[in-house]
Every structure is written in C-alpha cells, then in structure tokens.
C-alpha cells in the first residue's frame, strides 16, 4: 500500500500541538479592517485551537501523518 500524503494546503494552514490539538489562524483578518469592530480584531489576533469535531476531520483527511 502506498504512503499517505499530507495535503500541502493543510500543511501551510494547520499545525498540531504536542497534545494532538489543531492550531489554526483566525479568519476575517486579511483585508477590510476598517469596517470591522475593534473588539473583533482584538479577539482574532494570533492562533486558535480548532473545535474537536473539525480537528478530527482535519487530522483524518488532511494531516494523516501528524
């Protein structure tokens, strides 16, 4: 059976923590900052931990090698 490949798009967007959770960047921060509330911009800085349901799917289909 051939090796499972990691999706290169997911490789650039997600990272796994030591405990196996998936870290991701927060959406809606690329452009158009003036029209967004300051509170939203503040809360969306840095990275976040993905929800467990989405993380399971990402690990199974996009990052199979961990």
TrEMBL record:
Q: Which GO terms describe its cellular component?
A: cytosolic large ribosomal subunit
Q: What HAMAP family does its record include?
A: Ribosomal_bL35
Q: Which Gene3D superfamilies match?
A: 4.10.410.60
Provide the family line: Belongs to the bacterial ribosomal protein bL35 family.
* A single BP term in Gene Ontology: translation
PROSITE patterns, A to Z: RIBOSOMAL_L35
Which named protein is this?
Answer: Large ribosomal subunit protein bL35
Organism, by scientific name, is Oceanibaculum indicum P24
Swiss-Prot/TrEMBL keywords: Ribonucleoprotein, Ribosomal protein
Ribonucleoprotein among keywords: yes
Report the InterPro entries cross-referenced here.
Ribosomal_bL35, Ribosomal_bL35-like, Ribosomal_bL35_CS, Ribosomal_bL35_sf
Q: Which GO terms describe its molecular function?
A: structural constituent of ribosome
Q: Which SUPFAM superfamilies match?
A: L35p-like
């Amino acid at each position: 059976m051939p090796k499972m490949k990691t999706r290169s798009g997911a490789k650039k967007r997600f990272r796994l923590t030591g405990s196996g959770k998936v870290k991701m960047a927060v959406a809606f921060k690329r452009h158009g900052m003036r029209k967004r509330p300051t509170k939203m911009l503040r809360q969306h800085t840095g990275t976040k931990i993905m929800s467990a349901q989405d993380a399971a799917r990402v690990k199974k289909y996009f990052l199979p090698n961990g």
